[in-house]
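Margin note: ligand = glutamine.
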Amino acid sequence: MRQYNSLRDIRADIANGQVSCKQLVEQYLRNIKERAELNAFLEVFEEEALAQADAVDQKLANGTAGKLAGMVIGIKDVLAYKGHSLQASSQILNNFKSLYNASAVQRLLDEDAIIIGRQNCDEFAMGASNESSAFGNVLNADDHTRVPGGSSGGSAVAVQADLCLASIGSDTGGSVRQPAAFCGVIGMKPTYSRISRFGLIAYASSFDQIGFITKSVEDAALLLEVVAGKDEMDSTASQREVPPYSQLLTSDKKYKIGYIRDCFEREGLDTEVKDAILGVKDMLRDAGHEVEAVEFPYLDYMVPTYYILTTAEASSNLGRYDGVRYGYRSDNVTDLTSLYKKTRAEGFGHEVQRRIMLGTFVLSADYYDAYYTKAQKVRRLIKEKTDELLQAYDFLILPTAPSTAFKIGENTANPLAMYLADIFTVQASLAGVPAISIPVGRDANGLSIGLQLMTRSFEEPALLAFSNYILDKITVEA
Ligand code: GLN
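Resulting structure:
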């Protein structure tokens, strides 16, 4: 069977009798088994996916199939899928099963997507390399000695290695975009609030957003179209109408594009990544777009602000894992305090514990103003400056990450180095604006380079159309 890069191709082959959903699922299941060493899936829903495939084949035959019929998708282990295990790649949620579907998952099912399995990720989505999962590292399919990025590492590798057509993950500070960049696929984080977070395990609630990993822009658009929109289960989800994103993918407009000079002048930015992104910038200028360097003075404050605020929110959100209500509970306890302490010490991994401690510290009475309040103010400045730039420019372009996929173990001893991997992705998260990573080239080691585009809130149609345009142009010029 051929390898598919979009639902459109799959649907065309289904229509002319070349393939069925059942055959597709069988093929993906074979691929998953053959590439088991990648460790992309924590659980594969073999029987269920096959049964779903049969049901969708029937619907396709009688003309009642939904928009996502033929799409075989994996879900990151932070999204609730009723009756299935949900662990955020953590021991603390051992034996926990979802009692309901996340709204996003429900909407996928309503449109006949086939869910093939639950994907590995960093524990509680905290990480940039998938090395903090309680269930082992995920390997980058391009080079097994390298990380896939994180936290949605399993989701990105699954798409990279053709273990499913698409994945749905979460992006708090880059967790969809950065692994997509490391794995040579597309990763999109919509505007904060565009998608309901009901049923998404909370990490940092004022940042968390569901996103997609795909091989085509059209699939990302289709998924967004299906999943976005108001939800009575999440009052923070935007009430705005959902445009038909997948019908809005062409644009012949000449845009005004800013590239953040400070990002490109930054020490630590890999020169091959820099050259690739600047090459695309020149290509856009040659094609008649207006491209200008812009100043963004807050680059050095981005990572500290992000980590103060997200650890603060995480320390509060993760308070619920206490061994009393659900998941893991330590055996050797003497009283309630020791139950809490032992359960949390044994159930959470090191990175999660570090963040809970950091978050508790920045929220403590003596330091609250010095850290938390101050970081809130800096976030406001970053947001205002980003919005101001996005009033003057249709898009900002920058690298998704300062390097290509790094070696497994390279950053584990130095959390600060790991946090700096997020330097270019956290801006969109702090500002709440939509952003996407698209693959624009490879370095001398054959590792993928991602270009990031940011735009104004709720301007996903333009973001998707322009991404499509750039990818087409790169293919034509290659
Ligand atoms: N690497 C970032 C962090 O560890 C981003 C994680 C995410 O987006 N979930 O917080």
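Residues 7-247 form a domain with the Amidase signature (AS) enzymes fold (CATH 3.90.1300.10).
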